[in-house]
Amino acid sequence: MLIEASEKCYNYFRGDNNFKGLSGLVHIIREYFPAFTHRNYKLFWTGQVISLIGTWMQNAALNWIVYSMTRDGFLSGLMTAVQFTPLFAFSLFAGLIIERFPKRKILIFTQSMLLVFALIFYILLYFNRLTYPLILIILFFIGTIQALDNPTRQSFVVELVEGKKHLLNAIALNSAAFNAARLVGPAVAGKMMADFGAKWCFLFNAISFLAVLMGLLMMKMKDIPSRHQIKDPLSDIKEGLKYIKKTPKLLYTIISLVIIPTFCMNFNVLIPIYTKDYLMMQEKAYGMLLSSLGLGALIGAIFVAVRASKEKALYFQLMGSFGLSAFLIILGLLKNYNLSILNLVVLGLFMISFNTTSNSILQFNSPDEMRGRIMSVYSLVFGGLTPIGSLYAGTLAKYAGANNAFIISGIIGFIGFFVLFKRRRELV
Question: Which residue, among 205, 117, 195, 101, has the nearest Cα to 155 in the 3D structure?
Fold first, then answer.
């Protein structure tokens, strides 16, 4: 299917057959990337691509700064844990806010606040006033904003594509944007840090948020919440959790998301340590390793966008969880920089196959009136448990080495795979 799509693109640019002119390109987009036929989605996606490059530059720079400042894997893990603790504390309540207020307006607020925090980082670095305690304080506030921002963006997609018909395609294209940024951002950050200093990564990130805000302001849509009042917050949260419990497709997807992202996707914590202490390399190598993971994830996202469907989602989910676990173990056994790059490309492909289809399975099986609450649970387990995963990875890397942390994480990942595989007949 990917080869076929490539051939059609080639024919379009060559002007052959039925692909001459603009109509040929429109045909390719409609057939393989139908989410792009929705104007609001195009605006959102374009802004996200630009903003996410800045976000990945900031993440890469911050992880490198902290490990260079502390030389302690535990403190690197603690930093990530502090950022994601608010997701654990507030995600379920965020679901109620998402259903109560228009999602577009929520995103305008959250993206504006993230812009402000990026500027604060830049100013502190510019005046050489950034310390580890200040980093933790700022990241806690960023995490609080993200506790609302993340589930809002996830549940907003169905409105951008006006229903579920193009939902999986849109989710996959979102992953493509995220991972194109993961590919570009760390590589640019590595060179920028080496040549000019880390502070410019934060300034670029602040500016990049303007692209998202412009897209949100240009959208033409009715800002209507899915419900108009919150009667009893705890009762409403329990209602959402009960619905997940009685729906196997939601329940076992959530269980696998508790296990696999928490213990198998701690790359921001482990790759700086793996680069410095195991491969004995510096900033540019670190940026390339992170970008390699992004390249694989980008390939995986495009592959899922072109090939996956609602009916094939479970197959891609199983394939992703198995491959991710296996190649984590292989990465821990490698000590060659070039082979590590290739392995991370493959790891990224399987990682995004699991992530994208897990997200889409939850959304396909979510009633509109509960989407905010269900996606807030997704954010809770996918991001809110990151503090546990970060502390686990940082502590394990400190005492056993980053390479052994990858191996142990891969073994744990197979537990998540077997949860899905054992229940596969209930999930079809």
Answer: 101
Asked whether 274 and 335 are in contact (CB, 8 A), the reply is no
Contact 96, 233 (CB under 8 A): yes
How many domains does the structure of the chain reveal? 1
Residue 265 lies in domain: 33-427
Give Cα separations from 259 to 1, 106, 252, 289 (angstroms).
32, 30, 11, 24
Q: In sequence order, what are the residues at sequence separation of 6 or more whose Cβ sits closer than 8 angstroms to the Cβ of residue 235?
A: none
**In which band, very low, low, confident or very high, does the pLDDT at 13 lie, cut at 50, 70 and 90?**
very low
Helix (H) or strand (E) holding 239: helix 233-245
Distance CA 92, CA 366 (A): 15
Instruction: Estimate the crossing angle of helix 248-264 against helix 371-379, to 10 degrees.
Output: 30
**pLDDT tens digits, residue range 72-102?**
878 887 888 888 888 888 888 888 888 888 9
pLDDT given at position 22: 59
pTM exceeds 0.70 for this model: yes
Q: Is residue 139 part of a domain?
A: yes
Q: Which residues are CB-neighbours of 182 under 8 A, at least 6 positions away?
A: 52, 56, 290, 291, 293, 294, 297, 298, 348
The rounded distance, in Å, linking the Cα atoms of 176 and 302 is 6
Does residue 314 fall inside a structural domain? yes
Query: 351-373 pLDDT, tens per residue?
Result: 999 998 998 889 888 887 888 88
- Using the 8-state DSSP alphabet, how is residue 231 labeled? S
Q: What is the largest CA-CA distance in the chain?
A: 63
Answer whether residue 390 is part of any domain: yes
| Dist CA 386 CA 260 (whole Å) | 11
From 409, 406, 405, 401, select the one nearest 278 (Cα to Cα).
401
Which whole-number Å values give the CA distances from 36 to 31, 191, 400, in the listed order?
A: 10, 33, 46
CATH of the domain at 302: 1.20.1250.20
C-beta neighbour count of 5 within 10 angstroms: 17
Residue 122's closest CA among 58, 194, 180? 58
- Say if 20 falls within a structural domain: no
Q: How far apart are alpha carbons 55 and 166 in whole angstroms?
A: 27
